[in-house]
Structures are given as C-alpha cells and as structure tokens.
Amino acid sequence: MHKLRTIIFYLTLACIAAANLSFTLAPSYTKPRNIIIMIGDGMGLAQISSAMAFYNGINAFERFNVIGLSKTSSADNYVTDSGAGATAISIGKKTYNNAIGVDKDSLPQTGLFELAKKRGLSTGVVVTSSILHATPASFYAHIKNRRWYEDIAASLLNKQCDIAIGGGYQFFSNRKDKRDITQELQQNGYEVIIDSSEFKPIIKPRFIYMAAADGMPKMQQGRGDFLQKASLCAIENLSKNKQGYIMMIEGSQIDWGGHEMNFDYMKAELIDFNSVINMVLNIATEDKNTLVIVTADHETGGLALTENDKQHKQFKPQYTYNEHTGIMVPVFAFGPGAEIFGGMYENTAIFDKINQLMMW
Ligand code: MG
Ligand code: ZN
User: Fold this and answer.
1) Which of 12, 139, 239, 248 has the fewest CB neighbours in a 10 Å radius?
2) Which pLDDT does position 257 carry in this prediction?
3) 50 strand-pairing partners
C-alpha cells in the first residue's frame, strides 16, 4: 500500500513536470509570414518627439502597443556607425564601425536575408540613400568596409536581395574593374531600371530600381512620396511569394539632417518616414500576417528640445553635435510576435528575436 502511494506520488510529480515542460516549450506567440523592418537612420526619441510636435496628421508611432529600447554600441566603439548598427540587426553580432555584414574579425556571417532565402522567402530593401549605403548593404552584402561601394554593388549578384529600390547607379558601370554590373545582373535574372523621373511601379519578382546616381534628393528638394510609392511597389511584388518575405525600409536621411545639424531637414525626412510607417501599418493590419518593427541604428546630433524663451508652449530644437551619439533608441513592434520586442536589450537581440519567432 505504502509502495503504491509512493508510485502515485512520483507519477504525479512526473506529470506536473511534463505539463510545465510542454508549457515552456510551446510558443505562446504566432509566427508571422512576413517581416518588415523599418530603420529611421539616426532616429532617436528627440527626433520623433520634435518632428511629430510639428505634424498634424496621424502619428504612426502612437499606433504601436509594444515598445522596447535598443542599446546600440558597436564592438569597438560606444558610439556606433550605420554599418555596425545595421549589421548587428542583420547578423546578430556586434562588429566594428564601418563593417558590412561581417563580424569583428571581418568574417562574413549568415544574415536574416540569407536565412529567409534558404527557406524560400523573398527579400528586399527600399531606401532614400543609395541602395549600396551602409544600412541596406548590411542586409545583403558581406564587405569589410562600407565605402567599398563597387564591391557592394557586385555583391548584389549573390542574389540575397530580390528587390532593391533607392539611388546608387554610378557604382554599376564606369568602374575601376571595368565590369558592367547592370549587365551582369540582367544576365542573372534581374530587371535593372535606372530612372530618376517620378517613381513608376513595376511588376517583377526580381529587380533593382535606381532613381539617383548616389543618394536620393531631400524631401526639401521635392522627393515627394517616393519612399511611400517605392515601399508599396516592393511590398506588392514581395507578397506574391506565399512563403512570405522579409524586407528593410529605411528613412535614410533623418541621419543626414542630423549631420548637417539642420532641424528642418531632419523634420521633413521624419514626417515622410512617419507616413510610410502609417501605410505599412495599414497593410499589416489588413493581412494580419506581417510583423512590423520600427527602430533606429543610433541617434544623430544629440538633439535636445530646450525651453523656448519667446514661445513658452513651444521648444527650441538644439543639436549638440554633428555626429552619432550612444543613447539607446526605441523599438516599436506591431503584428504577430510583436510582444517579444518589449524590454531593454542589445541591438543584436532584434536578430535573435526574429530568429526565435521564425524558428530559423
Ligand atoms: Mg543609413
Ligand atoms: Zn550618420
């Protein structure tokens, strides 16, 4: 009798243990089909607060329920550059400033785009800089130095990026190595469009669309709704893949306004980015299958909102510095799996969290 009771006792313990185990193993979140990472280059909280204070439309940042904080330091500097910043998200490892998709020993590491491609998903980048600039390049290239633009252009031939829209056509022909990357891409199944007039949507599974020799014009120079139209075009093409897609949309010039310590430049770029976030959130709300992550690689300019002596209900935007700073940046998440992006973590954790969600 005593023995039987002991057996029942241990069986009960085993059952409780098994129940707990299955509870911890079963993910409580839903796996998204698509992931849209939106990077406001140089977009800290001061940039968001100040630009949105001057904007009367819908504040896209207020549409997120899950908000986290990302620590942006690189492997060799408390203050990161955009190469190390985007690479941390793309490969999940801290690296040195100026690195593109390589670790601190300059070794290429498997990034989110490659992981996605291996599982049959499509990939894309849409930016207002050159498509070869540090932020987008970190997602599809593995290059030791962010300034080796001709090498970055050639690495599009590794086919890790199905769609790229932005500037940068000067690095595809008239090169030091005499190669014609436009032609090589076409031989590899890419449509290559070089057209700096108004953006025209196309339907193609694989294309490179370049609308400027290097970076795109500023909003203040009449870029208009390029980023919105280009992002929509990329999403429409990528979503034809029923396996899903992962893409990166960048508000590249929020950073450039900071380097120029020019508040109006930054503000116009951020308001443009805000409208693209609103569009992406509308799409994600409708399809219920898309995780949207909005973050920054770092803050630029040490922007402060100081007291305005003349108009007490307004502030005076003041840049303290024309370079990047080391303050944490926000992470906004929406859609299936968004809940795991709350909290405070290193920028590399964004890679880890995406991997965890996608079970890659
Ligand atoms: Mg950038
Ligand atoms: Zn910068």
Assistant:
1) 12
2) 98
3) none
The C-alpha atoms of residue 233 and residue 203 are separated, in whole angstroms, by 8
> Relative to the alpha carbon of 248, which ligand is closest?
1
In sequence order, which ranges of 193-262 are alpha helices (DSSP H)? 226-238, 254-259
The pLDDT score that the predictor gives to residue 256 is: 98
Provide the domain count of the chain: 1
Q: What is the CATH number of the domain that holds 145?
A: 3.40.720.10
Q: Is residue 27 in a domain?
A: no
Averages of pLDDT over runs of 10 residues in the chain (360 residues) are 64 56 60 98 98 96 98 98 98 98 98 98 98 98 98 98 98 96 98 97 98 98 98 98 98 98 98 98 97 98 96 94 98 98 98 96
Instruction: Please give the distance, rounded to the nearest whole angstrom, from the Cα atom of residue 223 to the centre of ligand 1.
Output: 17
Burial annotation 141-170 (CB, 10 A radius, 16+ → b, else e): bbbeebebbbbbbbbbeeebbbbbbbbbbb
Interhelix angle 348-358/82-91, nearest 10 degrees:
20
Q: Specify the pLDDT at position 29.
A: 80
> How far away, in angstroms, is 121 Cα from ligand 1 center?
24
Domain of residue 118, residue span: 32-358
- Point out the ligand nearest to the CA of residue 130: 1
Q: 340 C-alpha to center of ligand 1: Å?
A: 25
The closest ligand to the CA of 257 turns out to be 2
Ligand 2: distance of its center to the CA of 220 in Å?
Answer: 19
Residue 20 lies in a domain: no
State the distance from the centre of ligand 1 to the C-alpha of 165, rounded, in angstroms. Answer: 14
100: left (phi over 0), alpha (psi -120 to 50) or beta: beta
